[in-house]
Design a protein that fits this description.
This protein has 89 residues and is an all-alpha fold. It contains 5 helices and no strands. Helix 2 packs across helix 4. It starts with 6 loop residues before the first helix and ends with a helix.
Length: 89
């Protein structure tokens, strides 16, 4: 019987270990998650952010809340937050 490893699962486990071991990275990701949750829970502020995005680039990008077990979603979440950082200021 031949068993192959799931590479995507292995990478998720490795990134999870890296996240737990590196306090600087975990602090950045945790802060990004708090900002995203705050905007998602305050519709008026989210509306202002979306309006500012449309005025600056003619489109509004949604903030992505990551899934705990999918580390790619954490990357996408922080990347999107960086994309909307200029309209956020």
């Amino acid at each position: 019987m031949l068993i192959t490893d799931c590479w995507s699962h292995q990478i998720n486990l490795i990134l999870g270990d890296y996240y737990k071991a590196n306090t600087d990275i975990s602090a950045v990701v945790d802060n990004a998650n708090e900002i995203i949750k705050w905007f998602n829970n305050h519709s008026f502020a989210l509306g202002l952010l979306n309006t500012e995005q449309v005025s600056m680039s003619n489109r509004a990008l949604a903030l992505i809340l990551p899934v705990v077990t999918c580390w790619t979603s954490h990357f996408c979440s922080v990347s999107r937050l960086l994309e909307v950082s200029k309209p956020m200021k």
